[in-house]
Amino acid sequence: MPDAPGQVSRALRAAPPDQLAEAADRAIRRSLGASRTEVFIADYRSSGLWPVLEPDRPDGGFLSGHGAAQRCFSSQQPVQDAGEDGRCRVCLPLSVWGERLGVLLVELPAAPDAATVEAARDVAGELALALRAADRETDRYRRARRQERLSMAAEMQWDLLPGRSVTHGDFLLAGQLEPAYTVGGDHFDWSVDGDRLTVTVLNGAGSGLAASLLTAVTVNAMRNARRSGGSLVEQAELASDTIFYQHRGDRYVATLLMELDTRRGVVKAVDAGSPHVLRLRAGSVAPIKLEQQLPLGMFAETRYDAQEFAVEPGDRLFVVSDGVYAAQPDGQEPYGERAMARSMRSTRLQPAAEAVGTVMRELHAYHADADLRDDAVVVCLDWRGSSPPDDAGGQ
């Protein structure tokens, strides 16, 4: 068998950023003997897969109408679909470091052997990496992701995100924003650096472009401190001072900052406002009680303290904004009182990237599928436990 991944990789490096799907199609046909390929990109809600090569999008999204692609996207495993004519369509996940971008479909003249499937999976990995990099150079793949026009605020929010999921040897992490096409101030951010994972969740104040601008300033202030080697407390304090001296206390941002030591399973946290942390352990959901401190930017020179709590291998942490926890449609009890815990318990067999979608779908159902009245963010963190360190230390 020819070196399919190598051929595709070389073709992608030589292609313009807006022509990756076409370059991959030609290389895959040559190296794997495929009769056709198609590249599908997940939309902002991960509710459908939309074609890059096809000019006309199918109503309802490809994901909702094709079981093999749906299973591939959800399981992140290759799925084969044999046709009556003997041809076999192989659906392969397009993902980078755990972020699920979409699905690559490769149609072969017959059912492939294990070596061909593995080569096709490596090809999909090369294409996914190229697509992720090309997002900075072309709008083509971002256009495929949207079912409707984004508001200006939402455009800024999605550009500010680090991604939507990440896989690491010690943890799985995923997040989702809603309403996806009009979200204003709610946001999440994260960074992986050695044995330290930093996660922040913002419950943005206000709505529309003003809320998005405030969130952008807050996130970039925290990133500035973090990238300069600042501690979690220093990240909170720089962001708070930046906001205050811009708005003199008239605007502020409720924020939760967390830092997981992936070696020891210890979380440091600065609770500066209203995002809530809940732990799913052994099928039971319980809140993590933290000392709530002032939101970022409320007063000048506000000082913050970090608290610690431990996690155990297999623990799942959910962080939700008020738009989730306090959602109270049509006079019902808040979603966070009982319904949210039920939805979280139902995710115990799902990966983190599926779990955030489940909680959001249940939130929409709680609203009887009416538009959400507030921005909502859900972040899910699974700590798998770490390999023993080289020395005999550890918790």
UniProtKB/TrEMBL annotation:
Keywords: Hydrolase. GO terms for molecular function: phosphatase activity. Residues 168-383 form the PPM-type phosphatase domain. InterPro entries: Bact_Sigma-Reg, GAF-like_dom_sf, PPM-type-like_dom_sf, PPM-type_phosphatase-like_dom. Pfam families: SpoIIE (PF07228). It comes from the Bacteria. Gene3D superfamilies: 3.30.450.40, PPM-type phosphatase domain. This is Serine phosphatase RsbU, regulator of sigma subunit.
